[in-house]
Amino acid sequence: MITLLNILHLSAILLSGWLIMHAMSYLIALSEKRGRRFLLFGGCMLLCTMIIFIGDPFNILATTPVFLVIVFLSCKGTFWQKVTIGLLFSSTIFSFSALRDNYIHDLLFPPGQLGISMIIFGGSDVNHTLDGTWMLTEHGYHVSSLFTLPFALLLFLYTKKNAPDKDYVLSDSMWRLLLFLTFIPLGIVMTVVTLLRHYDYCVNAMAHREYAVLLLIALFAFICLLWCVTVLAKQRKLEQQGMFAEINRRYYETMEQQHFELRRLKHDLANHIQVLSSLPEEKRAAYAEELSGNTALSQSFTYCGDSTVNAVLTVKKSAMDRCRIRLEMDVKIPAPLPYDKTDLCALYANALDNAVEACMKLDETQRKISLKCRADKGLFCLEVCNPDPEPKNARPQAEKQAASMSGKPLTHGLILPTSKEDKRNHGLGLKSIHEIVTRYHGHLEIKIENGVFDLFLYLPLARNL
Predict the structure, then answer these.
(1) Domains of the chain
(2) What is d(CA 135, CA 112) in angstroms, rounded to the nearest whole number?
(3) pLDDT tens, 145-175?
(4) What string of DSSP letters covers 2-67?
(5) Using CB atoms within 10 A of its CB, is residue 290 exposed (0-12), middle (13-18) or buried (19+)?
(6) How far apart are CA 112 and CA 104, in angstroms?
(7) Predicted confidence (pLDDT) per residue in 399-447, tens digit
(8) Disulfide engineering: 218 pairs with which of 35, 188, 355, 401, CB 3.0-4.6 Å?
């Protein structure tokens, strides 16, 4: 009987720790190292197995900082994110454990005077009272600890259902606000646990039912705060989408204006010819030379069947010619694409701008960009390749990871950082591409292989999105 109970107790703790760890993974990125993940698993098991007595503050005060250290070692993210997530989950488990060990246990095994006295004065081998019922003993707590498993399962399912996107980002100010709100229910739990002396509480355990109400209120508050993380993440995503949409709109308007200027200049060619015919011989050569240096007069404006793509490619091709960058294009788009013009402009412009930025770090002989795009068989595909200007040993950590994958595609969850010094106002290009691809239910891959940076994406052509 005891052996079976111990097995059930250990299994419940193992499964509960696993569920809590995976619930945390929906709100904070875990370390990729197995050793650190195993450390976090052990920390979650520690939370689930810890007994929290009202009036005995040692366990909760000792375990909280230990678990926070484990979170810092085992998780990724900012300082405030780690502190907030660590306190949220540890406090949620502690508030339930306090209910479990002080009320659920006593409902299952009502304490008697003999058992209580022996526990208070150090008795650890008491299994029965004089009437043969189980008391506040180790095996009794093994039974009540089984309730941790369904609670951990509910917490896991709740977190999974309300989890934000994997790549969600909250500012430090938002994390500090959540941390401040966490201190309120955490203060309730700490006060309840440390308010009474253990002896007084044990003598009249069920006389303090008001503390059960406070613990339930604190538990509900922690659950709501976990939900607040999701709400703030979704709100932040909406703000970013609005920001990207505004950037893309302005970009498209600028591109349209530039394209209009180019068309107007070409349209005025007839006027230039008339001017040439009326100029004196000595001025005619200089005027003709000035016109011949204008790439707009020789630039092709029709690359495909989509006017927005034509406008972007015309402007970018002109800019690349000035920077002495060779652009090789294979464009097969027979009809207008079914996407918003600003989104389509942003996809091409941001991809080409990043390629131009990389090429400008190279010698003129190495500056080359390859662009391939087609719309066929229900998919729109775009691929932009350019030489990789950075040596592998000089890359930031995220780019080292990309370069070390031997050409394996990087999912759109990994966005390489900008190399510009003003990182606050730059580095939005790939994020904007990622946001658009996600919104249209497409796929984005980035890989670095044999010194070539390759960006590839595809979107479904069907507009029922």
Answers:
(1) 2-242 (no CATH), 303-460 (3.30.565.10)
(2) 7
(3) 788 889 999 999 999 888 887 777 788 888 9
(4) HHHHHHHHHHHHHHHHHHHHHHHHTTSPBPS-HHHHHHHHHHHHHHHH----TT--HHHHHHHHHH
(5) exposed
(6) 16
(7) 444 433 333 344 433 444 444 443 333 345 788 888 889 888 899 999 8
(8) 188
